[in-house]
Every structure is written in C-alpha cells, then in structure tokens.
Write a structure and sequence with these properties.
Length: 236
C-alpha cells in the first residue's frame, strides 16, 4: 500500500548545504530558522494555543537523499565512520522512508507576507527542507529521564575555535546585518564538520562552508579550528 503526503511548509535555515549542518538538533543556539507554512495550512486557527509550548517537534523529509535509496546497515560518524550498525539503530538520512524528527525551541509565531511563520532555535535542517508535520513537545511524556542512548550516550566533544585577525575584522563588518554571525560560526565549527575519515592527525587542509549568506574558510591545526576568512555571498 502506498501513502501520499504533502508538505505543510518548508524551513528557512542558515545551513545551506549538508556539510557542517549539525547532525543532531539543539547543538547550535545561534542557528535561528523560520518555518513558513504553506498556503493550505497557513491560518491563525492551525497554530491556536501553540504559543503556550516552549518546544515543538518537526517531522520533515530528507529531500536531498530521497532518490539515493537505503541499505540495511550504515556507518555512523559517531563510531568513526568505520563500524556498521543497523539503519534503525541510527539517525542516518538514508532510510526506507526518508523522514526525520527533531525537537526545536519555539521562539515566536509571526505573520509575514500573509503567511504564518514559526521562528525556531536549534534546528538541524538544511535550508528548504520540506516540513511534513508539527507537534507540540510534551515535557512529562517526551522527556525520559532514565533513557539509554547506546553508542550515542554522550554529547559530541567540541573543538576550540579561534578567529584570525582578518576574520574578526570581517565579522565586525557584518555585525549590523547578522549580529549572531560569530556565535553561529563558533557553534557550528566547534562540532568539527569534517567527515570522520578526514580527522586524522596532521590534516591541515582548508575547508569551506556556506553559513547563511557567508562563505567561511577554516582549517584544523593541533585540534583547534582556525577561522581564516569570512566573505558575503549572494543567497541562492
């Protein structure tokens, strides 16, 4: 049997590409995103009383992986990208049904250009990701104090982030347009977005990532993230 779903909206996120998008929600507080509801569901009635909840669940489609299929086992980055586990023991986007689930903090409910928009914090979604559903987070039932998290039982370790003099000057120049830029860069890069197989000692190659409207160039030296350059680019 086949079921068909229509997205209820899409997210506008500072993460423009898969690389450097956090692998779990809630890891970057400066990552503020907006969910723009589609015309069919964009009504004050559909969000009535939602402002009483501090957090919401987002059910979304891994649309960038939709056509790539899936395999019974995957190699989670948490295990160094070498050990395989069952797809259902992972949060890999390559799934039989490519559906994701993330809790985010609800900051505001706004109306822009005739559309209802939800301003949220901590989303781990790429810009443009289709949203399938929104549900309120219920603290007494959704937060499980004695839960066990298998091989992902601890939060990821963070690397220190340092800015070059040039990068600090560039951040200062953009502060009027994007006040949270420095914090966004710090929080995102501290998670070390590099693939597990590229984290070997001595890797000092230069990387680039598109955050919001900015191209950020960086490298890792002696387990320290060095931000080299930040430049403004046109939003695609």
């Amino acid at each position: 049997m086949t079921y068909e779903f229509t997205p209820i909206g899409a997210i506008s996120s500072p993460y423009r590409e898969k690389f450097a998008t956090p692998r779990q929600p809630g890891l970057t507080k400066a990552a503020v995103a907006r969910i723009v509801l589609s015309e069919e569901v964009s009504s004050p009635e559909t969000v009535r009383e939602l402002e009483g909840f501090s957090h919401i669940w987002l059910l979304f489609l891994f649309d960038k992986n939709y056509q790539q299929g899936w395999t019974p086992t995957v190699r989670p980055p948490r295990l160094g990208g070498n050990k395989r586990v069952g797809v259902f023991a992972s949060r890999s986007p390559f799934r039989p049904n490519p559906i994701g689930l993330s809790p985010v903090k609800l900051l505001a409910i706004e109306q822009q250009d005739g559309r209802i928009t939800l301003k949220v914090q901590g989303a781990d979604l790429i810009d443009g990701t289709p949203i399938l559903d929104i549900k309120p987070y219920i603290a007494y039932s959704d937060a499980i104090a004695d839960a066990v998290s298998g091989f992902a039982d601890k939060a990821p370790s963070l690397l220190p982030v340092e800015f070059s003099a040039a990068a600090l000057e560039q951040v200062a120049g953009f502060v009027g347009q994007t006040p949270e830029l420095e914090e966004l860069v710090r929080e995102t890069l501290a998670l070390d977005p590099r693939p597990a197989y590229q984290r070997e000692a001595g890797d000092e190659r230069e990387y680039g990532v598109l955050l919001d409207r900015y191209n950020v160039r960086w490298r890792v030296v002696s387990e320290v993230i060095e931000v080299l350059d930040i430049s403004l680019v046109e939003k695609s």
